[in-house]
Amino acid sequence: MSPQITPIADTAQDLELAERILAPDGERIANTPLDEFIADVDGSQLRALHRDMVILRRIDAEGVALQRQGQLGLWAPCQGQEATQIGTARALASKDYVFPSYRETGVIFARGAKPGDFVRMWRGEEGAGHDPDALRVAPLQIIIGAQTLHAVGYALGIRHERTDEVAVTYFGDGATSQGDVNEAMIFASSYQAPVVFVCQNNHWAISEPVAVQSQYPIAGRAPGFGIPSLRVDGNDVLACMAAMRWALAHARSGKGPAYIEAVTYRMGPHTTADDPTRYRRDEELEEWRRRDPIARLEAHLRSIGELDDEQMAQTQRAADIAAREMRAECLSMATRPPLAVFDGVYAEPHAGLERQRAEYAAYLASFDDEVRA
Q: Residue 232: enclosing H or E segment and its boundaries?
């Protein structure tokens, strides 16, 4: 499988070059390369995917609200990217290990994140919001593209130990301009590492449009490294699931890395510190709103008689409960004492660390002296 290599003129044309299974109006489209990978997906599984996306969008909206209310330092919205994250993550095996960027709320949700896991890091309470060992998801990575190197390193370990795990790494279109991503692909290809690269092309690297960074589809770069790639409609949850199943089968069988470009769109700001109205046209936003991933799957489910109003109401109630639990966890978090930052750094006491602890304690105590003065 390889992408169609044609210059990108605009976002509409960009999407038309991607493989899809569900049209924007919910109609099922025959897709010979992908259909075999989702032949087992029935109505019940489709409803579960829809439920996941609805809950994810509600969690995401609650995260934005908590940040606006001063409860979180920052939030990276994923509205519009629900199909890419849920579709790919639900294709993973529990033994696979994920290396995300900072926007993969849906991935950690699909891997079993608890309500507090979504906000703990953004509130500044811990370096990782979730338990990496429990979810088999590395801490969210802020440094653009660095997680791709971590994923390849882990994949080399998989290859050395001869297990059938796969490492999976997520990154945005902007990260493809970083050296780390390209270096990771070189190593992955050279050593046939079992790793899947997932590029969420949401069209904006903060305020920089993807057409400035890449005149051609991003998935077209991977074959240059000797990595097979597939370009899919990232707002089509079935296409995303099928693409990930294809990529996982390729990597798990010992054939080396695979690459997915999911063409989607960031509906909100880059983060809550960003103002997208300064660089994005309203017309473009409306154009992508008509391709909404949740509405697309809902239309398909209703057309085949697998979703009714009562089921929709149940899903919405589940989403509201998830948001309330997340808010409650956030507001109940107690900040650890400042010196706790040294806890758990080493398994055994360390003289150098104890010296640093004492120095930091003295620094903190100096503020008490200033208050008394």
A: strand 229-233
Query: How many other CB atoms sit within 10 Å of the CB of residue 211?
Result: 15
Cα separation of 291 and 270, whole Å? 19
Model confidence band, residue 126 (pLDDT cutoffs 50, 70, 90): confident
From residue 157, how far is each of 17, 20, 93, 225 by CA, in Å?
Answer: 35, 34, 18, 21
pLDDT of residue 7: 47
Angle at 28 between CA 27 and CA 34, to 5 degrees: 145
- Residues near 53 by Cβ (< 8 Å), separated by ≥ 6? 82, 83, 86, 106, 237, 293, 294, 297
DSSP labels, 306-363: ---HHHHHHHHHHHHHHHHHHHHHHHH--PPPGGGGGTTSSSS--HHHHHHHHHHHHH
Question: Which tokens is 321 given?
Answer: 């409960």
Q: How crowded is the C-beta side of 367, counted as CA atoms within 13 Å?
A: 4
Structure token digits, residue 332: 């109940």
- Which tens digits make up the pLDDT trace of 28-60? 999 999 999 999 999 999 999 999 999 999 999
**What is the tens place of the pLDDT at every residue in 291-303?**
999 999 999 999 9
Element of type H or E holding 194:
none
pLDDT at 3: 56
Taking CA 135 as the corner, what is the angle to CA 129 and CA 139, rounded to the nearest 5 degrees? 40
Whole-number Å distance between alpha carbons of 153 and 156 = 5
**Measuring CA to CA, how many Å separate 121 from each of 66, 129, 327, 337?**
13, 4, 14, 16
User: Which residues in 284-299 are b (16+ Cβ under 10 Å) and which e?
Assistant: bbeebeebbbbebbbb
Mean pLDDT of 331-359: 91
Where does the pLDDT of residue 252 fall: very low under 50, low under 70, confident under 90, or very high at 90 and above? very high
Nearest Cα to Cα of residue 312 among 326, 301, 327: 301
Active site residues: 266, 270, 279
Name the pLDDT band for 18 (thresholds 50, 70, 90): confident
Integer CA distances (angstroms), 150 to 122, 221, 341, in order: 22, 20, 24
Residue matched to tokens 């409609």: 233
